[in-house]
Amino acid sequence: MQLCLLQPVWGQNYQPCENFPNYCISTGNQKFTYYKIGQNLVDFVSMNAKMIMQNPKNPSLFVISSNGSIENVIRMRHQPGVNMSIVQSDVLLHYKVEAEKGNRDAIGMINQLRVLLPLYQEEVHIIVRADSQINWLHQLYGKKISLGPKTSGSSLTGHLFYKLMTNNDLQESNVLYTVGDNSFDDSLNALLNQDVDALFMVTGQPSGRLAEFPEKVKNLIKMVKVDYNNEVTTKIFNGPYYKSVIPKESYPWLTEDIPTISVRAYLVSKEYNRLQSKENIVKFVKSICRNFPTLKKNGHPKWKEMVLDLEKLPGGWRYSSDAEVALKSKDCQQECTPEQEMFKLCKKAGKK
Questions:
Q1: Is the CB of residue 83 less than 8 Å from the CB of residue 17?
Q2: How many CB atoms lie within 10 A of CB 134?
Q3: Considering only CA atoms, which of 70, 64, 160, 154 is closest in space to residue 106?
Q4: Comparing C-alpha atoms, which of 87, 34, 94, 38 is closest to residue 62?
Q5: Which of 104, 217, 260, 265 is geometrically suited to a Cys-Cys bond with 119, CB 3.0 to 4.6 A?
Q6: Over the Cα atoms of the chain, what is R_g?
């Protein structure tokens, strides 16, 4: 991945968070999981957080769309009003590695970033045409791939996968980048029109957009699987990746479970010094804990996978000190019976 992606990328589609009087969370395309999770935090968490806001008449949190993880990191650094974002662990790790190499842009980008909460595993979805000879991840070598927006986590993951598997950079001539709210539709059309061989994206399943294909499209596509025994593919697990499965029940056009690879998503904020900001982060995380049952019941299905836990972070990343205070408070302590604790069916938050 070229370091130019560490530079600010400004476009006309950026919503003016600097004019919004309270907090903003930068997420992803409105059609996919990041945005849905952000909206859940607005609907079920921020309204009950009792945060001290500049304008109490406005909602305390406002969700904005973006092109994904890289852009979310850039916004946290450069766009006034963006106080939280959702970012993939491999994107965080990439910035960390570049910062350790002395890259000043990377250092400035991540110096104040901290994790509020581990979220969920995002699955790699690779779609090809139904008549394609490509059935496995390792067969993508030398093929032309759509990676979505250049500042998306999917783009970085695609580049990192290729680098880990081949020890070479993915050639830009073999990549199609798409932009804007219609990025996915443009990628899909490019696939169906045979302008690319595969569509590569990282999103938490089930994704509503992938489930709502019209009947004629369902018959024209299939999903690529991962062979965990392939010697090239196994190199991917040298990075922050996990074995995962996309069940056929997730999408009506699947005929079988799809073995794939996943990457962890994190809710990220900053390490604040201002007392009011610190108190607001504590209140917000406590509200996540109090409303966790509601999130699991009424939010995106990915909430059902999550636990309130200070798990070990990859690459030396640190939790927000304010999030740690919140997660160790009574608001975030689950009531566990002795039997649940014995069988590891209930874990109290704040324990590393």
A1: no
A2: 16
A3: 70
A4: 38
A5: 265
A6: 20
40 within 8 A of 204, measured Cβ to Cβ: no
Quote the tokens at residue 180: 């804007």
Residue whose C-alpha is closest to residue 72's, from 35, 44, 101: 35
The answer, yes or no, to whether residue 124 has pLDDT greater than 90, is yes
Q: What are phi and psi of 33, to 5 degrees?
A: -65, -45
pTM (predicted TM-score): 0.81
Tokens of 312: 């070990």
Please report, as a single letter, which amino acid is at residue 297.
Answer: K
Of 285, 283, 306, which Cα lies nearest the Cα of 296? 306
Q: What SS3 string covers the chain?
A: CCHHHHCCCCCCCCCCHHHCCCEEEECCCCCCHHHHHHHHHHHHCHHHCCCCCCCCCCCCEEEECCCCHHHHHHHHHHCCCEEEEEEEHHHHHHHHHHHHCCCHHHHHHHCCEEEEEEEEEEEEEEEEECCCCCCEHHHHCCCCEEEECCCCHHHHHHHHHHHHHHCCCCCHHHEEECCCCCHHHHHHHHHHCCCCCEEEEEECCCCHHHHCCCHHHHCCEEECECCCCCCCHHHHHHCCCEEEEECHHHCCCCCCCEEEEEEEEEEEEECCCCHHHHHHHHHHHHHHHHCHHHHHHHCCHHHHHCCCCCCCCHHHCCECHHHHHHHCCHHHCCCCCHHHHHCCCCCCCCCC
State mean pLDDT over 46-56: 75
Q: Which two tokens stand for residue 143?
A: 């093929």
Please tell me the distance from the alpha carbon of residue 279 to that of residue 233, in angstroms, as a whole number. Answer: 45
The pLDDT of residue 16 is 54
Vertex 301 angle, CA 319 and 49, to 5°: 50
Asked whether the CA dihedral 85, 281, 39, 11 is positive or negative, the reply is negative
